[in-house]
Amino acid sequence: MPKKDLHTSNSLAENLRKQYPNNLKLEGGFNEQLDKAIEKPELTIKDVKKALKIKDADIAEMFDFKNVMAYRNSSAKARIEKGIIQLYIKICYPQI
Question: Is the pLDDT of residue 4 over 60?
Answer without folding.
Answer: no
